[in-house]
Amino acid sequence: MSILQPDLHFKNVTEINIDLFKEKNIKFIIFDIDNTLAEFNNPDLYDGVKAWLDSVLDAGFKCCLVSNNCRTRVEEFNKNLGFYTISRAAKPFSFMLKRALRKHGYKPENTCVIGDQIFSDIMAANLGGMLSILVDPLSDAYEGKFVEFKRKLEKFVITR
């Protein structure tokens, strides 16, 4: 069960004080997209996220987007951010997260993964030895039967 346990849990990314990253010696932050930075399949950042991301970048942190979604979705979302991106990441496997680390020259212990799903984002971060931060999903919009099933399992894991 420890691979399913996030290191930290917040309501949304804007609640994370960026001093936390400094305290944890984080230099590289990997974000999921859907229901983490934006509502599911929405091309726009959620309210307040742009200002929060700007403060993260201004503080000197390097950021990346790693999503299980298709390339078109990830590139469309990223067009105003300009982050390095990986689509079809196959999370919960951590090999694509590790690819992003190698590309930018960071180590797992200096990396944080922020996402809304225990069985993909959190598990991938924990398997890769990275700090894992779970945020509550921004929307309860239907994401497909598989994600709906995972959400039910997540509720069980969170209450345990």
Characterise the protein shown here.
The chain has about 160 residues and is of the alpha/beta class. It has one domain: Rossmann fold, CATH 3.40.50. A 6-stranded parallel beta sheet has the order 1-6-5-2-3-4, with helices on both faces. The mean pLDDT is about 90.
Question: How are the SSEs ordered, and which strands pair?
Answer:
Layout: E1 8-10, H1 19-23, E2 28-31, H2 49-58, E3 62-66, H3 71-78, E4 84-86, H4 95-104, E5 111-115, H5 118-127, E6 131-135, H6 145-159
Parallel strand pairs: 1-6, 2-3, 2-5, 3-4, 5-6
Please name the defining characteristics of this protein:
160 residues, 6 strands, alpha/beta, 6 helices, 16% strand, six-stranded parallel β-sheet, Rossmann fold
Largest sheet: 6 strands, parallel
Widest sheet: strand ordering: 1-6-5-2-3-4
Q: Provide the β-strand percentage band.
A: 15-25%
Give the CATH architecture. 3-Layer(aba) Sandwich
Count of helix runs: 6
How many domains? The number is: 1
CATH H-level name... which superfamily?
HAD superfamily/HAD-like
